[in-house]
Q: What sequence folds into this?
């Protein structure tokens, strides 16, 4: 990789991080544009740099704006300092405002229907043509099927169901209310950190037009291996793997600090692998001679029998 390319990439990364965590950005001409076309009707919530590598510039921005009449009525407007009128199409902005107003109305309607249908600890949104439903509950077998049974009754009576796909996430219960309320605001899906990923336990995705049936849907849950819950599993399983290795491995060995993991295909949980080395060099962490491997099952709440596996 050439030196100039490396420098450009480094600058791009720094700019991206600064756009996410730095001081509030100046919006220069965009605020003036907004005052010209939507004076008193829209306000800027935040502005960030739009992928500088893709655009070959740091002057392309994404601004989240909200209606002054309804703070949850939000859209993202991309604008470019380098071009006349910032490259913004007024017709496109009006279309986005109309569509987002419909989606917000639908999200609120769906939330109320779900709450009236007997499900609690929920938040909703409509985004990217999917009805997003977050449920902050422990993903026990009983909860999983009850959630689906109740949701299906609700969705079969909701006239808007055919308009959207379905995205259900079971979240860490302790995360409820920490970032948003009943309706998930648009900036949540734009955020640069991994809050959503870290706090999501199970996911379920259903395409638009799919026949909803609880039993078949209940087999489609996916465990999220990027969650903080898996980190906890690894931390509690490592001492057990170390003890198993001491009892079952005849050769002298070292447990290495790395961990490998992957979602199980036919069960909810993860395969966790703790690498070992027969090398006596304590500074050598690259020589892996095998793995102490076990399956951590969600419904069991513990890691299963260990075994030694090779590369």
A:
């Amino acid at each position: 990789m050439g030196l100039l390319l490396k420098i450009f990439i480094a600058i791009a990364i720094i700019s991206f991080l600064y756009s996410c965590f730095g001081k509030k950005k100046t919006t220069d001409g965009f605020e003036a544009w907004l005052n010209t076309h939507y004076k008193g009707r829209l306000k800027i919530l935040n502005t960030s740099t739009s992928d500088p590598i893709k655009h070959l510039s740091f002057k392309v921005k994404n601004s989240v704006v909200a209606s002054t009449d309804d703070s949850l009525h939000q859209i993202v407007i991309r604008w470019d300092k380098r071009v006349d009128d910032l490259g913004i199409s007024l017709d496109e902005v009006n279309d986005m405002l109309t569509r987002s107003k419909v989606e917000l109305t639908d999200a609120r309607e769906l939330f109320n229907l779900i709450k009236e249908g007997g499900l609690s600890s929920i938040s909703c949104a409509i985004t990217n043509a999917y009805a997003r439903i977050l449920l902050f509950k422990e993903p026990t077998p009983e909860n999983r099927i009850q959630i689906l049974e109740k949701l299906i009754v609700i969705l079969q009576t909701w006239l808007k169901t055919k308009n959207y796909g379905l995205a259900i996430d079971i979240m860490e219960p302790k995360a409820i209310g920490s970032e948003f309320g009943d309706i998930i605001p648009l900036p949540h899906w734009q955020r640069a950190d991994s809050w959503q990923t870290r706090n999501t336990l199970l996911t379920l995705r259903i395409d638009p037009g799919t026949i909803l049936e609880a039993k078949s849907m209940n087999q489609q849950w996916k465990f999220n291996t990027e969650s903080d819950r898996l980190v906890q599993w690894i931390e509690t399983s490592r001492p057990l793997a170390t003890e198993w290795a001491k009892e079952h491995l005849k050769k002298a060995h070292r447990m290495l600090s790395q961990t490998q993991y992957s979602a199980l295909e036919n069960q909810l949980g993860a395969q966790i692998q703790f690498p070992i080395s027969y090398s006596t060099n304590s500074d050598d962490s690259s020589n892996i001679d095998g793995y102490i491997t076990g399956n951590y099952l969600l419904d069991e709440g513990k890691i299963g029998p260990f075994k030694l596996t090779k590369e």
